[in-house]
Structures are given as structure tokens and as C-alpha cells.
Amino acid sequence: MSTVAGEMDHHDHHHHAPSGITRWLFTTNHKDIGSMYLWFSFIMFLVGGSMAMVIRAELFQPGLQLVDPHFFNQMTTVHGLIMVFGAVMPAFTGLANWMVPMMIGAPDMALPRMNNWSFWILPFAFAILLASLFMEGGGPAFGWTFYAPLSTTYSSDSTALFVFSVHIMGISSIMGAINVIVTIMNMRAPGMTYMKMPLFVWTWFITAFLLIAVMPVLAGAVTMVLTDKYFSTSFFDAAGGGDPVLFQHIFWFFGHPEVYIMILPSFGIVSAIIPAFSRKKLFGYSSMVYATAAIAGLSFLVWAHHMFTTGMPVAAEIFFMYATMLISVPTGVKVFNWVATMWRGSISFETPMLFALAFVILFTIGGFSGLMLAITPVDFQYHDTYFVVAHFHYVLVSGAIFSIMAAAYYWLPKWTGHMYDETLAKWHFWCSLISVNVLFFPMHFAGLAGMPRRIPDYSLQFADINQIVSIGGFAFGLSQLIFLAVVIKCVRGGEKAPAKPWDGAEGLEWTVPSPAPYHTFETPPEVK
Amino acid sequence: MSTRLITALLASIPLAASAQSQLNLTQGVTEISQRVYDLHMTIFYICCVIGVIVFGAMFVSMILHRKSKGHKPATFHENVKVEILWTVIPFLILVGMAIPATKTLFAMEDASEAEVTVLVTGSQWKWHYKYFDRDVEYFSLLATRQDQINNRLEKGENYLLEVDRPLVLPTDTKVRFLVTSDDVIHSWWVPDFAVKKDANPGFINEAWTKIDEPGIYRGQCAELCGKDHGFMPVVVIAKEPAEFEAWISEQEAIAKAAKEEEQRLLSMSMSKDELMELGERVYLGSCAACHQPNGEGIPGVFPSLKGTAMVMNDKPGHINIVVNGKAGTAMQAFGNQLSLRELAAVITYERNAWGNNTGDLIQAADVNEYLNK
To answer: Source organism's superkingdom (chain A) (predicted)?
Structure first.
């Protein structure tokens, strides 16, 4: 440990920070890279969001008004891909880059050059994906789940670009995950045992293992799509001895752990914020760690609950139903822990806390609909309807994204050295909270009443619900511009932030000044 | 922008209030669909109770234990008893949910002893129904007119949920569905039966229903299957068994007569006007979804028919591809979907519309040569 720190010291004497664009191109500093990840993710959030606006505008009324169905399908597909791989995942990687070294008392990430590369290949991946929309025949139009044979025999030639860009995203994620694991295993400050690590570090540690396990599976799936389409293989073509359902097994073996990749770091964030603003220790630290590990383990055993209608044997349906229901036990433990932490605390409602509280409630609602979806006989009715769309947007938007917002407000003073504008931030919160529910709650009803997902036009009985949903969508989209304003304002100035702006906060990151100096913990702190 | 939004928001309120839109899952018209509905409501109520307890505790905490009221934080944490309790109780609730769910699932998956079997085949973007042991099979296509979809005509009551030839089934009879696909994955779904089954190309899935009440039941394709995924509804008419028997016998007779008529047509020829008029109708119904009403297709996805080499010069190739399709592409074989007359007409239409003007007239006999090749 001390040799590593010594070497870092040594490097620093020769450090001449380049200026201008090269500072960002060549940087190996975890804070710079973290900032780039976060900005990139926010830009992708706006790009993916504007595609959602196109979708909601088309669905504002029955009939085809603005776009043709083929383009509509491209919008739903690319919206999903961008939000998953471009917005949520890079946001978490950005937070990990900024916070993990500072939370464990390390001077930087363990593999800084790889860190630079894992960020800088991302813009190319998304440039390729977005450029494919302008090809003849349009971009990918088979849903972010790219089920074969719609994505093979029946897709346009942009599929090759889609496959290539997913490969790059996967490489980036795997490198990021390796970096997190190596950093956490080797660079903890003396005394920082595993069971003393902040939960954000723990949840990311587990997430990183999930990433390494499943991103190669996704890479395999896209590669088989590529060879089926262009090189006459028949992995997913019955005429050549393949099986289209095999694709779904492979995809969801990646896809379900992927869902937890997008929520476990949220659990870590919320487990930091709720105790801070309740001024009370987290109720059950070790049970939170075990619950996270249990959720991660179970995530490998539930993939086929996405496929109940594909015609599985009853025994398989029962296994996947039970395994899926079981996930609600460790998830429940988490929610109960947060509530018990708040209980008899001394609660205040700054913006990070507001987003964290909204997270707990809305994520739990998403959990309830998840439990309903786990029940196989009823899933036959819910499957591929707006009920599912409502479910996963509750856990991903008012879940993952709200936790990212909470994290941003919580650590902005540390990143920028300024307090953000609390009034404007509260506007952002309340506008987001109301609009997100106007946007996603009625979708439950549309789905139950029988509206399939991924349709550009619908029968008249769904007209009212869709109009309300679209209005909520536009309002939610506009509300995020307030967030942009708050962040820019905070970066440019504002009230000076102390080293520890939140009196209840705990952790090493609050022991360094605000803004955090370019290099922190060059001498490792002693953790007791 | 904002004033328009507000106007739209205000406009939507009376609409929403007066709407008779259904907001919950249907109870359906079969014993299974009723059981599924009951299960759905049970789980929903359990979730509600848990929600009230958990969120209630949160709100009590948020109201009573706030710093602004001077509440001092307690210091308790970790309590093994409580933690075991909130692990075990949810587990027991789950067991309580799993029991009825498992029973219903077993009932749903038992397709044995069916009296009527229908082969349901999905293709882009229509359904095909074939009754086993009866000489009846047909395609079922969206009947909503393009003008309604494009907002040029007022939308009808069953907008997007109407087809030209619905599936007809008997009531009080166990009906088995064998579900498959000709191209991509589709999913055959009728909410009132609680039946949703994926149609996988190259594989056959099984489902069943036993309808309690005569009526018209509507559903849609539930799996994204390409451009017109939103435009391939399912409509089922359930009739009393005797009525069904009469209907299917009548259909058999009609199918037989149509075959004889086809043979007779082989020796007749139609005029250009007749061919073009019928051809346009068939084209708009069966071809325009991909090749577009103007014949120009969608570049990179669906080829253009306007002035292209095959249409202009290669008459045999043109007839062959329409009749037998092209393997490995979205181009289906229309030989078994359209009558000889319709095939002849639509090929003639394609060779003479949009300025193609080849002057070629195709007759039923010309098409017949390529059938069953």
C-alpha cells in the first residue's frame, strides 16, 4: 500500500497539467474523468430524452401525425439504448470515478490510463449509433432488446453499426468495472476494511462483478446477430437448425443482471444520503451488504421471467416465478432499513434528501409492479403492455435517475466548491416529482386495459390516458433543463461550500476541502 | 409552447372525466381469465397493504421526526430480531402468493382434450387461421382504412381493432391454438381469454381457451414485429356451438366453390381496366405496407417498384417473386394468400402504375404456371 502511495507522490512532482482540450483528452485524473463521464451522461440523457419527446408527441393523439411507424420504431429502440448505455451506466461510472477513490482514501483509480480510454471510446460508440439513424433504411428499429430474427434477416444494414457500437460500449463498461474492482481491492486506506467501506463503494464493487460477468454475454449475443445477418450462420434461424428463443435466453441472461447494474449503485447512494439527512446511523449496515450480494446472486437465476410467453415448460415457468418472487425479500430488507434509519431521526429536507425519499417511495412502487409481473399466470396478461413500460420506468427513471440526481446534489458542493441554488433545486425536484408521476403512473392503467407497448398508434379507448401521459412527458423533459441551470450556476459560482456542507454526512470525502483538490489522499488517511 | 400545453392540459380534463375508458385488467369471458383477474387483484391488494404500512411509517417519520421541530436523533441501529422478522414475514407472504399462482398456472398449461384445434400463424403483418380437420383457412387483415390512420377520415368505433375476416370459435368448447410464425416473432393475444402466446418462426406453441359467452373479442399482436406491429389486430367471434357448426360448413362450401371458380378462370381473360381496378385494391391491401402506395418503397428497407429492372423487364421473375416470395427477406409468398385473379391483377397493376406503363397484361393462366413451382 505504502509503495503505491509513494509512487503516486513521485509522479506528482513531474506533473505539468496540459491546458485546453488536451487536458481533457490526455487526463488520467479520476476527478476529470468522473466529470467527463457525468457531462457525457447528461448530454446523452437529453438526446435520449428528446427521442422520448418524439415518441410522446406521436402518441399524443390516435392516428399517425408526425412520424411514420418505421421511424417510430427507431426512436423507441435508440431511446432505450441511449438511456441504458449512454445515460444511466456512464452516470454511475462517473460517480464511481469521482467518489470511490475519495471514499476509500485512495489517491486515484488503480488503472488511470485505462480509465482515460474507457471514457474516450464512449463518444465514438454513440456517434456511430446516432449516425446510423441517417443511413439509408434508417437506424436500428427492432427495440433495444433486438430480438432475432427481426434484428437479423429482417433488419436494415445499419445493424452492423449497431453491433459495432454495442461492442465498444461493452468494452468501455468492462474496463470501467475492472478498474473499480482493482481500485477497491488494492487501494483502500489503512484500516479501511471491507466491512467499513461506505455502501456506495460496496454496491459498486458488486455491480462491477456483475458487469464483468454479463457484458461479454451481450457481446456474444450481438456477434451472433452479426454473423447470422452477414455470414450465413443460423444461431437464431430454425431453418438452419437454430432457435430464435435461444436469442432471448442469451439476451436476458445479460439483461436481467443489467437491470441490477442500473439499480445497485442507487442503493449505495440512497444509503449514504438518508442517514446523512436523518442525522442517524444507517440501521443495518451489514444486512444491507448481504442484501446487495443476495440480489446480485439471484439476478443470474431469474432471466426467463422476461420470456414467460415464449412457450417454456411449466417446470421452468415455476422455477423462474419463484426465483423472481424471492428477490423481493432482500429488496424489502433494503427498503425497511431505509425506513428504520429515518425512524426517530432528525430529518431535514434538502434537495438530495428529497430525491432520495422520492426514490424510496417510487422505486418501491416499481417493486410492487415487479412482484405482480413475477406471477406467471398474470404476467401473460401484463407482458409486453404499457404495464411493463410503467414498471421499468418507475425503477429506472424515478429509481436510478432520481438517485443520480440525489447524488449530484449531495456531492456538487464537494465537486465545485460552491453550494447549489437550493430554491432552484427544489423547483427541479417538485417539477420532476409531479411530472414523472403524471408521465408514468397512468401507463399502468393503459397497460392493464390492454395497450401493447412499442406501437405508434392505438385504438380510441386509450386516447385520454395517452394524452395525459404525453403532457407529463413534456413537463418532465422541460423540468430537467432546470437541473442543467442549477449545475451550471453551481459550477460558475455561489456560496462557498465548507469541507462538510451536510452536518449529518459521514465518510472520508468530507475530510478534504471543497472543491476537492486535484489530487487527494496522496498520503493515505488512517481509518479507525 | 407553454400556452399550448396549458390549453391541451385543460382540454384533457373534461375528456378524462367523461371517458369510459377501462382502467383495470379485464375479467374476461373464460374461467381462466376470471382466475387470472382474481389473482391480479389479490396481489394488488397485498401490495397496497404493504405500501400503506411502509409509506405510512415513512410519512410519520417525515412529519414527527424532523429537525425543524427540534427532534433529536435516536442512536439505535441493528437489531437481529427485527431483521429476522422483516425477512421471514415477507417470505411467508410470498409463499401465500405462490400457492394460488401455481395452481392457476397448472390449469392454464393443460391443453389436453381439446375439441377444436386452430393453427394460428403470424406473418408481417397479419394473422392466418387454419381449422384442423376442416377445409377452412384464411388470412385476417386489419380492416381500418389508411385514411383513418392518416387522419383524413373520422376514426371508427373499433379503430385499429377491426379485421376483414375474424376468427370464429364455438363457445363452451375447449379450443386449442397452435401458434407459429412465417417470419419474425409475433404474439397472439386476446385479453378476454387471458391467452397470450408468442408465435416463433420454426416452432409451434400451444395455448387453449374455453369461452363462456358468445360475443366479439378483440386483441392485438403483443411482440414487436417490425414496421406495422401496431396494425395487426386479433378479432374473435364466439358463436354457440350449433351456429359455429353451420358457419364452418358454409365456409367449407364457399372455399370449395371458389376453387372451382379459379379453375374456370384459367381459360378466361380480363380487360386492362378490370385488372387495374382490382389490382389497385389488392396492392393497397397487401403490398402498400412495405412498398408504399406510391410504389417507391423505403430506401434500404423495402425496395422500390417504380421503374426498377424486375418490374420493367423481367416478367417471369416478377410473377415468380409475387407468387413464391423471396427466402430470407420480408417478401412473402402471396401464392397462397391471394386468388389467381387477384395475383394477376396486382402484377398487372404494378407493371402499369406509377408511370411504369409496360403495357403488359397478366392473366390468371400466366400466374398459374408459377403456382406450386
So the answer is: Bacteria
* ipTM value for the complex: 0.91
Contact, A118 vs A175, CB < 8 A? yes
Q: Which domains are delineated in chain A?
A: 2-9+26-511 (1.20.210.10)
> Which residues between 237 and 266 in chain B have a beta carbon less than 8 angstroms from any beta carbon of chain A?
none
Q: Residues 287 to 306 of B: which have CB under 8 A from any A CB?
A: 298-301
pLDDT in tens, A195-223: 999 999 999 999 999 999 999 999 999 99
B116 phi, psi to nearest 5 deg: -125, 135
pLDDT of residue A15: 54
| A294–chain B Cβ distance below 8 A for any pair | no
**Cis peptide bond N-terminal to A149, omega within 30:** yes
**What CATH number is attached to the domain comprising B314?**
1.10.760.10
DSSP letter (8 states) at residue A456: S
Higher pLDDT, A294 or B327: A294
Q: How far apart are CA A198 and CA A99, in angstroms?
A: 10
Instruction: Supply the range of the domain harboring residue B130.
Output: 116-261
Tell whether B256 and B272 lie within a shared domain.
Answer: no
Given an 8 Å threshold on Cβ–Cβ distance, is B149 in contact with A460? no
Q: Is residue B149 less than 8 Å (CB to CB) from chain A?
A: yes
If 0-12 CB within 10 Å is exposed, 13-18 middle and 19+ buried, where does residue A346 land? buried
| Contact residues on chain B for A372, CB-CB shorter than 8 A | 40, 43-44, 47
Does one domain contain both B74 and B125?
no
For this structure, is A519 an active site residue? Answer: no
Contacts of A357 in chain B (CB under 8 A): 58, 62
The reply to whether residue B73 touches residue A344, judged by beta carbons under 8 angstroms, is yes
In A211-239, which positions are buried (b, 16+ CB within 10 angstroms) versus exposed (e)?
bebbbebbbbbbebbbebbeeebebbbbe
- Cα–Cα distance between A504 and B272 in angstroms, integer? 86
